[in-house]
Amino acid sequence: MEDLEETFFEEFDNYSYALEYYTPESELEEKTHLGAAHWVSLVLYCIAFVLGIPGNATVIWFTGFKWKKTVTTLWFLNLAVADFIFVLFLPLYISYVAMNFHWPFGIWLCKANSFIAQLNMFASVFFLTVISLDRYIHLIHPVMSHRHRTLKNSLVVIIFVWLLASLIGGPALYFRDTLEFNNHTLCFNNFHEHDPDLTKMRHHVLTWVKFIVGYLFPLLTMSVCYLCLIFKVKKRSILISSRHFWTILAVVVAFLICWTPYHLFSIWELTIHHNSYFHEVLQAGIPLSTGLAFLNSCLNPILYVLISKKFQVCFQASVAEILKHTLWEVSCSGTVSEQLRNSETKNLCLLETAQ
């Protein structure tokens, strides 16, 4: 049984997917750069969680409950929902890396955690692609946009995006597995059948599908949209909100910066299975690139605050509203206080409806 596990682990080590590079403690002491890479990646995961939870919750609150429902707010609402769901599961992954890739949470959470990560990646890039196409059509083809750009049609697109992201991320639910090895439980993609060629083929197919569908095609689509938009805006002197344009462009650029190293290392992993030097590079590089990719989940709300004037104004107004109600509750009591609070709440609701 032990020989079988050793053989199995050797195959897993050659065909590991993403960052499941368990290294024994004795080797970690000798390879300090690997330990440092894992700890740096752990810091990135923690930053993504600490900033991602309140940041995406704030965006969901504004776009889902405070602002008027429009096609644009629906896009950004679903983008924030995808990121929020992902960061909720991050503590599991943080614990996994902190315990030197020991997964004590069981096989179903192993599958669910990986599926959520894949769902977040694909849903985010698909919504960014939809936002880019929507901007282009809205500004360059206003007649078509006025005819088809409705809340009903946008809901259809949103459902399609979530279904497509779930379908492409679905293999994680099938292949993800756990393995007991050397007092560690590993959570990894179990491509290993008795046929090693089939194992390698599955690894290649899933990696290239993820790269082409989840990165290359959206990148080309967004690039063409923005290049055409910039060219035609200058040529036709079309009016465009500079802050809105730069907000969307910044979100797209942030996605590319965060996810490009991840995809490059994933492709690199396909071609290098037997070179010990490059294997060490992958052991250090893949956790770091994955941490950078995860960091994207908390960047979008920060970009909204830094660039979007509307978001800045609404955020400041909401904070002021909370502080004002808190002061009323502290300084006032009794029937008079209750009447004043009811009156003010009614006025605020009327203002929200008017907007």
From TrEMBL:
Residues 55-304 form the G-protein coupled receptors family 1 profile domain. GO terms for biological process: glucose homeostasis; inflammatory response; phospholipase C-activating G protein-coupled receptor signaling pathway; positive regulation of cytosolic calcium ion concentration. PANTHER family: CHEMOKINE-LIKE RECEPTOR 1, CHEMOTACTIC RECEPTOR. GO terms for cellular component: nucleoplasm; plasma membrane. Belongs to the G-protein coupled receptor 1 family. Belongs to the chemokine-like receptor (CMKLR) family. Pfam families: 7tm_1. One of its GO terms (molecular function) is adipokinetic hormone receptor activity. It is found in: Cell membrane. The lineage of its organism: Eukaryota, Metazoa, Chordata, Craniata, Vertebrata. PROSITE patterns: G_PROTEIN_RECEP_F1_1 (PS00237), G_PROTEIN_RECEP_F1_2 (PS50262). The keyword Ribonucleoprotein does not apply. The chain crosses the membrane at residues 36-62, 74-94, 114-133, 154-175, 211-233, 245-265, 285-307. The keyword Disulfide bond applies. It is a multi-pass membrane protein. It comes from the Eukaryota. This is Chemerin-like receptor 2. Keywords: Cell membrane, Disulfide bond, G-protein coupled receptor, Glycoprotein, Membrane, Receptor, Transducer, Transmembrane, Transmembrane helix.
